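Dear support,

We are seeing what looks like truncated structure output for some complexes. This example has three components. We would appreciate it if you could run it in full and send us the complete token output so we can diff it against ours.
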Amino acid sequence: MSTISQSRRARAVLASEWIKLRSLRSMRATLAATALFSVALSVLVCGPVGAHWSTFSAARRAQFDPVDSSLNNIQLVAVFFGALGALVVTNEYGNGLIRSTFAATPQRGRVLAAKAVLFGVGALVASTVIVLAAFGAGQAMLAGRAPHAGLGDPGVLGQVLGGALYLTLAGLFGLFLGAVARNTAVSVSAMFGVFLVLPVLVNSLPKDALWQHTVPYLPSNLGVSLWHTHGSLFAAPWLAVVGLVGYVAVLGAAGMVQLRGRDT
Amino acid sequence: MIEAHGLTKVYGDTTAVDGLDFQVKPGHVTGFLGPNGAGKSTTMRMILGLDLPTAGAVTVNGQRYQGKVWPLREVGALLDARAVHPGRSAYNHLHSLAAANGIARARVDAVLDEVGLTSVAGKRVGGFSLGMSQRLGIAGALLGDPAILMFDEPVNGLDPDGILWIRTLMRALAAEGRTVLVSSHLMSEMALTADHLLIIGRGRLLADTPLGELIARHSAERVDVRAADGPRLAGDLRDAGAEVTVEPDGTLRVTGLGSARIGEVAAAHRHVLHQLRDVTASLEEAYFRLTDESVTYRAPAPESVVGARA
Amino acid sequence: MTAAGLRLRATAGSEWIKFRSVRSVPAVLIATAIVVVVGGVLVAAGFRSGWSTMDAADRAAFDPTFQSLRGVELAQLFVGTLGVLTVTGEYTSGLIRTTFAATPQRAQVLVIKGLILGAVVWVLCTVASFVAFFAGQALLTAPARHASLGDPGVLRAVFGGGVYLLLIGLFGVAIGALLRRTTAGVAGLFVIVLVLPIAVALVPGDLGAQLNEYLPSTAGMEFWTVVPAGDHTLGAWPGLAVFVLYVVAAGVAALVLLRRRDV
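Here is the complete output from our reference environment:
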């Protein structure tokens, strides 16, 4: 048995998980719908600005940022990526496939790692495409009529890639959340809770000292730090990356423990 | 009694059930036989009003199922043993079914006892083995003491004791005058349990006969003969009007003549016989002859699968 | 009792046994109540402790009743998921076939499921809303403003917390019956209730705000608000009516499709 090398086993697990990932029902449809949603929202936000720029007051013009306006839909898109990530794991618990999977590969940690790696890479590619598309569509609506940004402008590429990184990490957050909860309904609603409801709830609280030391470090707010044209309330981008990776790592560890400790 | 007239179900461009006409009568165990994908489960679902027919109709005791107020008191069905909420206890599962049709709580205890699940009545159904789930499903079918019972693959997951028990139960129910419809793949079980058969293939009814008649009509009664001088005996038997096939190992397969007559012919021509054997017909043979053309999902014969050893 | 009445009573009895016999349901309900109370308490405490950092405009617009009920926003995740699962759970396990074989009157089954979930959620969440209100107001000591039940609109708003969650639960049941799969149902419900308002609010100018006020959750939220959020608000009772309309529409669609579809 141990004549099969480690790398060959790793490739085998990756191959089988890739087949499963590719064939996951509605994966492509959901990603396409998400892309459409993101681009549409960017257009809907930037379009009116471009059309009515001449009527804007000086104060309003000062507040406007072309990059933010085309990227602020990312906060919503993050939930979709997280839900997809959760589904990659919880789907197998739902239909019982998880038993065959663990029978084929008893090293359960390897299975979870393979899923995370494959989904992570896929999410990075997909999110980059989606964020670029949303950015481009928004700037196209602004060009010639209002201030608009280009990828070559200082910091813009970083914001775009930062947004894609946030979406990827949100997806992995969801994936490991799925491994911990092992239940689709719980994982999906938790994603909505953590990435949508929680920030709406606490972001509007008065910004006292306690607030300033805690709220900017919520996963969704760390995400904002990665794509937003910088403001004082946000954590520094490097800190945001560390924080998000930290959240994912903690969930990942919990997921590993859960996987090994329980029967399926 | 269950009656179907022109019962048809089309999904997109697949015709799952195609113009079925049949009656399932009381006092018999009627076996529903057919290859995978033949339309048996679809038909059963249409009987229970779960799937709506594309054309035609099926009635239970003269009435469409959807019109019944207390259906479980007329029809008890086991379609899928795993169709239970895993977090619920066996008792509560049956209790909720009983309550839905105004069936007394005492019946829940009674059927649990009848299927032998009293000791685990309070346990979560999610922890049940397949055999236990199967028995729970049967309990659910018996709950309303119905005159009509339908079982889809009831012996799946049962141990030999359980298989004997369900076979005895089904025969007893039919003997009481109830209508019993069983769908199964297990030929041997079907042969022991059913006395009337509905054979379905590719959505069409292929046979609707008592078991004995089917076997008699479709299986090949033959005699296997081995003799010292096989080829010469084959010739003599053919002269006597039999059809003879010679097997590679020299055995003669003879049809058209009974074993007594074959013995006489052999003696008349001074043959030495080594074996004279009646091969009785089986349901399996009859079934395969009948459904040969209508198998939708067929695995290749073992010889044609090229192994690594070749 | 008439035959139809007996049939209805049997369905109700059966669905009640199903509702109470799965451990996770009471657990989620208890969590819901806790979230309503704890969420409201934490928000109220947050406003009290940060009162000095708020500017005059924010202080004037502060709605103590609404803020003490903010837990409802979090609780809707629990209630909505429970509503969806009431239906999709049976489709996933296949139990739905047994249910409809026992009770071919499918519309009755769906309505009873909704009524049972709705009634339990309503009673529980109304109590929780009152507890959250009183606890929150107790925390909002001077200089922060607090509200009393006698103040205009307050009693209605506190009842509104329970009503809103009742409607979210029913919305979940309807969407679950329409989509029949747990993932689609949960995601669908929360896209409508959570994502759409945020997305529409991002759209600049009047159009976004005007559209937003007619969205189901935005409109429904009016019913547990005392101080209007901005220029474009429907008001408490019109808001409730709009939300109810959405839920009824989803319910009717679910009932119609239920009869026509295969199980």
